[in-house]
Amino acid sequence: MPIDQGITARNWATLGVLAIVMFLGGTDMTKVAVALPAMASDIGLGPINTLWAADSYALAAGASLVPSAVLADRYGRKRIYLTGLGVALAAAALATMAESSEVLILTRAGQGLGSAMLIAATVAIIRITFRGSDHRAVAYGVWTASFSAGSALGPMLGGALVELGHWRWVFLVNLPVLGVCLILALIVLTESKNPDAPVLDAASTLLSAGAVGLLIAGLKMLPEQQIPFWTTIVVLAGGMAAAVSFVIRQLRMYRPFLDVRLFTQRNFAVAAVVVMVTNGVFTAVIFILTQRFQLVHGMSAVHAGITLMPLAISSALGGIVGPATQRRLGQNSTLVCGVALTSVGLLLLTTVGPAIQMITWLFIGVGAGVVMAIGANAIMNAAPEQRTADAGAVQESSFALGAGGGIATLGALSMYLDQTQGIPGPSGFYDQGATAALAIAAIAYTCFAIVAAVVLLGGRKEAEK
After folding, report:
1. Which positions are tagged coiled coil (predicted)?
2. Has this prediction a pTM greater than 0.85?
3. Whether residues 335 and 406 fall in one domain
4. Which of 153, 205, 370, 418 has the fewest CB atoms nearer than 10 Å to its CB?
């Protein structure tokens, strides 16, 4: 029976399932970071494998989003959504039994693959289920807000699970929720396909995954003194070659796997890069602080999780403040405000004392939240209507690859700097090395923010016509 203007009970039930799964995905992005020290102690994760355990989820999700979107369009959104739930369930179950770093990293990547399939299918399911633009906007808002809420509660939830039970509970808690959602999804979701879906190109899939994998692996090889430098250069060069080959292949294809020509539009390209870099910095700061609180300051997991909640909550607040600010200042000016707040927060984080550091977290969180909310919308607005599917894939990939790349880059830099000026062991990695790395990141992001502001304000009239 219709509830309001054509929105049925089944529509709302569909949105409820999608939101619950997205909430759980949000907790997965942050709760695992709090549990990493316990994991490292239990199964012997070294610094590099700790980085892989932290970022393999986001990297796998980012690398899999585009092929997952193609599969969803071609073989059915409900089918791919259910497959994604199954993959996420299996990966979480295997993670609870992990006894080695390799198994843990592979299961985290499996969770990322499942997440990519869920996200790719969800974007299309909402578009099909909610036909009116107003209802669709509400549905997307509920869906994204559920992720923000999950991210905000993740640190406290992860800390509580580790403190009250075991780090394996971080994965175990997913199983009953995902199991119920799988049953509900079977009942309430309706199947749909894109009759004009592109062909899944195996070469494009391998090239995109190879580019991400090789570039991140090369970054993590840099601080490893036992690995010859030339080996690292070869791996990084291989990643660059794969990335360039991917772009060339897309330009030559009649129906490209991903329409890379979208990046010739200034506002689209700048918004995608700003989202990716800002989310990378934000996620890396959460990762570094959670490890520092426990390994350097001796906090318990639950104490570290509660301490970090203002950073995560302020990000959700930024997502609410951003759209309201955009109505007054416009899209590009609001994005500039977001990167400026994030930049100020990062600079203060490395210069002020511990007593007032929480204020710097509010700057970083609100700024990043504004950028992610307005930047995501800017990506979609800058794309032609016939390229919305490609724009959606770029949008979600920017978030995921930014998160994984940020942890990998700042983590590798922390390790390298710690080896040159720090103290041995994981506590040194997250103390002196991380402090120096955060300072470099703050300066680099400030330079990036200045360039982004010049480009965005230069294109303001074009974007806001």
Report:
1. none
2. no
3. yes
4. 205
